[in-house]
Amino acid sequence: MSNSSRTIAEVLGCLADGSITIVDLSRPLGENTPVIGLPPEFAQSPGFTREQISKYDERGPGWYWNIIHVGEHTGTHFDAPAHWVTGKDLPENTLDKIPARKMIAPVCVIDASKESAADHDFLLTPEFVETWELTHGRIAAGSWVLMRTDWSKRTDTDDFLNIKEDGAHSPGPSVDCIRLLVERGVAGFGTETVGTDAGQAHLFDPMFPCHHLIHQAGKFGLASLCNLDQLPATGAMLITAPMKIVDGSGSPVRVFAITPS
Predict the structure, then answer these.
(1) Rounded to 5 degrees, what are φ and ψ at 130?
(2) What is the distance between the alpha carbons of residues 103 and 163, in angstroms, rounded to a whole number?
(3) 51-89 as b/e: b if 16+ CB within 10 A
(4) Do 197 and 210 contact (CB within 8 A), yes or no?
(5) Mean pLDDT of all residues in the chain?
(6) If you average pLDDT over residues 85-93, what whole number do you get?
(7) How many angstroms separate the Cα of 110 from the Cα of each of 6, 113, 121, 239?
(8) Which of 8, 19, 98, 212 could link 14 by a cystine bridge, Cβ 3.0 to 4.6 Å?
(9) Do 71 and 230 touch, CB atoms closer than 8 A?
(10) What is the mean pLDDT of residues 178-186?
(11) Gyration radius from the chain CA atoms
């Protein structure tokens, strides 16, 4: 048996004996899934809807299936580089062009849950990241960085979106934080909020820096994640498998983490 075969066998054995765990980081996708809203002058992404084709009846006696209608960036979803104008001309920028090997990567979880509870507009900064690195080590190139805020525990849609008169208020990364992560060569950046940027990121320069800078660098985004409190700061592996949509800018996704029990 080759070394790689032994490694795979060891992983399967660890799954069987419970010494490693699969953590589901995806929110259920349904008619009540919150969707990001844009100013009224822009086209809006629809919520999830479905139409029944048949359900063990005269339309199909032995089977059940539905037609679904959903925006690419709904619920727990994956952002490809082509999602933003800064990534529109890059190679491998749509879902059908991204190599499958890039869907599996180590993950770093930066816990900013206490700060986000105290300040709904909390921003992850380079200083916060570098302080985290003093304890957990430098973020390795090719790693996902996920910002834990416990925002996914807000089960009420209004509370989750947290929209006020001046727009949404939710935590996210600062401009300089994203610049640092791009310099680190990360695979991508993920959040528990409805999008990868802070709620007030339309006021930043550049606007929506995670979208602007991450996708400009050919990196990926993950939004509306959950259960980040079940992951270690380092040492887990992330599996992200969006639908292979031709020219797709993104997709609802089932995200898993393989982590020591």
Answers:
(1) -65, -35
(2) 33
(3) eeeeeeeeeeeeeeeeeeebbbbbbbbbbbbbbbebbee
(4) yes
(5) 97
(6) 98
(7) 32, 9, 16, 18
(8) 19
(9) no
(10) 98
(11) 19
Residue type for position 242: P
> Which amino acid, residue 74?
T
11-19 long-range Cβ contacts below 8 angstroms, 24+ apart? 11/258, 18/261, 19/260, 19/261
CA distance 189 to 64: 37
Question: What are the pLDDT digits (tens) for 99-112?
Answer: 999 999 999 999 99
Structure tokens at 247: 């020219």
pTM of the prediction?
Answer: 0.96
pLDDT at 184: 97
